[in-house]
Amino acid sequence: MEELMEDQYLSLSEVETIARRAHQGQVDKNGHPYGEHIAAVARGTAARGGSAAQIAAGWLHDTVEDDRLSREWLAEAALPEETKAIVEALTRRPDEPVEEYAARILATPGALLVKRADLAHNSDPTRLAALDRATSERLATKYARMRELLGLTGEL
User: Fold this and answer.
1) What pTM, to 2 d.p., does this model score?
2) End-to-end Cα separation, the chain, in angstroms
3) Which residues contact 83 (CB under 8 A, 6 or more apart)?
């Protein structure tokens, strides 16, 4: 994942640094540093054959949604338009119906592969088992519904 994107763009290493800094101090539902999640999504994107632009989106996929970086930062960043579009597609809006969110992901080239990596990490049985039963069941249902809407019902 150390390959560089085209010269006018940030390298994947630079994108990783920006994403890790943006999420510094944030923890996931298990209390783990959020950097573990974004690293898993970037690795999962690469493992699924994702391009450098998609891997960069994997690193950045939650930064705007979690208010860690602004939409303005994303628009002005030295990133491929594909990366920006994927991050925008994966940024769920407040009160947005899940069906609209899924439709936007499906309509954005490259976004589904990154979302697959995100869902795979979020749905990891080891991660879910560490949560209280109610939270684990709620999240498992939520992730199953998203996989259904995205046509990924056979995946974990």
Assistant:
1) 0.93
2) 23
3) 53, 54, 56, 57, 60
